Amino acid sequence: MHQFSPLIETTRGTLRENLHLGAVAVVNTREHLLASWGNPQHVVFTRSTLKPFQALPLLLSHGHRQFNFDSRELALLCASHNGEDMHVRAAQSMLDKAGSGVQALRCGCHVPLGFTFFDRGAPEGATFTAAQNNCSGKHAGFVAYCVLHGLPLDDYNAPDHPLQVAIREAVARVVHMDPQDMPMGIDGCSAPNFAMPLSKLAYAFARLASGAQDAEFGGVFAQLSQAMTEHPELVSGTGRNDLALVRAGRGDWISKIGADGVQCVASKSRGVAFAIKVQDGARPPLYAATIEVLEQLGWLDDAQRAELEPWRQRSITNARGLTVGERKPVFQLIAA
User: How many CA atoms lie within 13 A of 129 on its CB side?
Assistant: First the structure.
């Protein structure tokens, strides 16, 4: 089976200019594959789609209650945020509640996604801290877990640190895999990240969206999924696709993007989720493919279709605003 199949093509004039390959898996809470494109069993790194599940050890040990994290801060645990003031305030609040500071974060410092995600330069002379790292919420949760359990902070990102071992075991439980069968790599924020079949990633999001109905993680999944849908601006930020998708979903959809072409969307009411991987990691074809999957699954009404139309980016325009090409889907999901 081909690992990746054509998803989105772009044309210029009358010729195809680019063809973006990828795979899609649609899975329900019973772990049944409902539909797919490409190879749904292809093993992919989860990247930032993993964040809600990296929060599990903290919530399972009731650390969020110990430190009185509110729903906004639970949302930030799952975030790949823009580094806007609202994100920095929430991260700082979490650290304050855990009795720690920004210096404890081991995610590093980068120009906030509020600039780089939109190809905008930061203001001259601007300085940033680790609190503006898009993963600062996740790492504030890591710090809180370590404080709660009296674990060292200096190496909490190390794969053999008790926190990371607990995360790997929790993620494996969610997707019904042996922890050692999930290949490990180091993510952009220096924390371990795990790879799994695309269908397993979709299954994880179906379980997350099922919330309290999940027999094993119900209470925790309910809190995380509710926080993500109540505060999508904290999970992503101004102008981001996750924000647009969750708002269009009217409380029913959970959406989480990951670096290098990974996207997951789940429907609470349907108990179904899908995961996409675009092979070349490009974002515009990922956005377009995500909306097309929603279309093919019949999840869009007319209002949602219109609301999300800009993310299809059908027309390719140049600097003068002239239409010079087209971006369009070239796939049809295959029922299992």
Answer: 12
